[in-house]
Write a structure and sequence with these properties.
The complex is a heterodimer of chains A (365) and B (297).
Chain A: E1 5-14, E2 17-27, E3 32-36, H1 43-51, E4 58-63, E5 66-67, E6 78-81, H2 93-103, H3 108-122, H4 137-149, E7 155-159, H5 167-184, E8 188-192, H6 195-201, E9 204-209, E10 212-217, H7 219-224, H8 229-234, E11 241-250, E12 253-258, E13 266-270, E14 279-284, E15 289-291, E16 300-306, E17 309-312, E18 316-323, E19 326-333, E20 343-349, E21 354-356
Helix pairs in contact in A: 2-3, 2-4, 3-4
Chain B: H1 2-46, H2 50-55, H3 68-75, H4 87-117, H5 123-134, H6 138-152, H7 158-181, H8 186-194, H9 199-207, H10 212-228, H11 231-235, H12 244-253, H13 261-294
The chains are: A alpha+beta (365), B mainly alpha (297).
Amino acid sequence: MAPILDINNLYKNYGSVEILKDINVAIEPGDFLVLVGPSGCGKSTLLNCIAGLEPITGGTLSIGGKDMTHVSPKDRDIAMVFQSYALYPTMSVAKNITFGMKVRGVDAATQERKLNEVASQLQIEQLLHRRPGQLSGGQRQRVAMGRALVRDPKLFLFDEPLSNLDAKLRVEMRSEIKKLHQNLGATMVYVTHDQIEAMTLATKIVVLKGGVVQQIGTPAEIYNRPANLFVADFMGSPAMNLIPAKATKNGSGTQIEIARDGAAPLMLTDTHAENLPQDVILGLRPEDIAEAGFRAGEDVQVAECQIDMVEPAGADTFVVSELGGKQVTARLHAETGAESGKPLPLAFDLSKVSYFAPGTGERLN
Amino acid sequence: MTDFTQSYDAPRRNYSQLVLRWLLFSLLGLFALFYLMPLFVMVTTSLKSLEEIRTGSLVALPREVTFDAWRTAWSETCTGVKCEGLKPYFWNSVLMTVPAVFIATLLGAVNGYVIAQWRFKGANLIFSLMLFGCFIPFQVVLLPMARSLGILGLAGSIPGLIFVHVIYGIGFTTLFFRNYYVTIPSELTKAAKVDGAGFFRIFWSIFLPLSLPIVVVTVIWQFTNIWNDFLFGVSFSQAGTQPVTVALNNIVNSTTGVKEYNVDMAAAIIAALPTLLVYVVAGKYFIRGLTAGSVKG
């Protein structure tokens, strides 16, 4: 199938400042693409470029197989939901939703029918005669989505649509957007700085930093096999443990040595890793370090560690131990007997390990 | 203990508050009286007969109320050689002010909309230059403007005066609208663009309906300035196209024998009435517009 959105070698400059550098992304119909990154990474600019609200400096962009590089937003067959909702303040909810159709000269009967369809889909029928100023944040969000849905476009664009909502409503709306995506089978591009939103919604994630794509992949790929230290650190909460270590070849496997302050170094043996340089950064997610006896598998290795801190979080208990000069977090079950200041045998699941080069930050395995 | 001090303190604080409040109100009342005094003298004088003005005190109320002076001022008094009162000049002023206010406000709205929402290279420079225009004194442009009006064939005509006032007004109206529109999130324009609306569609359907408060402010400002203007009026008009301010000056200055203070006062009030009216009528919408805009969203 032809990609519905195809971005090739896209560059965007403001004056002499490069905002986006050599972006290449393609998505299939039905995909949910999430652009994620810290603030200022260019993700919203990229979305605006896709919408045609910002001219691009170089490269090409096509939507639905047609070149849209220099086409104005209204002719791109897109709909967009903005962070501030951008509802027209002087128009009623119904007029807000039908404005686009009115501008395009859709006949009144069709407008009415589509309005009612969308209103019942989003459960906003009782709000149609109100002004945006009389709505709560969540209701405005729904209206903004309604304005996009009614257009039935090739591509939906979302610019941090949930960041103005409170935590509870955000989770609610998040699952609603996900449901919407599944029910409509629509193609969506979604910008967020929230990596949990990215993980839960996406079928494909683009991680951006400083206008450069760090990694493109499915949520599982990004989470399990981060391409570099930045992605490893950015995705996941609590963040992946990144521990400086020394690797030495040892028969068929590799001996990993992690220095410890005031104790013998922690020794692990990785039977899969090959051709590692001497200095590496070992990445292991908190959930891949468990209490001994609670994780089995051929790559699980147990070592005794000094526990510096215990943080019960309800469902899990996090314990912190200093390894290689870093505070390393392990995710244990809630009823763990771990006590701060005491040693505890921890199981390291090396089947999930990532290695990075300390200099470049690139993934090694 | 605490109860005791409270019950002892409370009335004393109330007492000093009351005294302060009365002092404040008396002072404000005094200021108000001071400001209203001239108006009082104008109104009472305009309602007296000449006989009464000569014999009575300046601040006394009229013994016998008469509207003769008002009728004279409106349709009979002499401005120079003609004796048809303020009426024709009053209409000149209306014919000049209404279109000038309308055109300047509309141009200012479009300018402000472009500068605030359709950023382009040099937008700031153009805005600064327009702002600069607000600070050029009227006297400086008298001669170049007279020359320009001559070339355009508008010299001495009401359209010429409209032209001058529109040019002078654009700086201010642009400033007002630009500052208002700059507070409107640019996402609104973006959303409308994605919805398929063009430049003027967005202006008419989205920005103009939002603009009531600033339109009222601009209209009050422009109307007051243009209606009250004397310098441009006296410089760029000729017999028959003079605005009411110029005519008022002529009435007061062309004395034939007795000085008719009551007619002068009535004429002055007539000349000032429209700006007062605009303020009273539009001021209400001004407040309403402000409160409508202050609601979240």
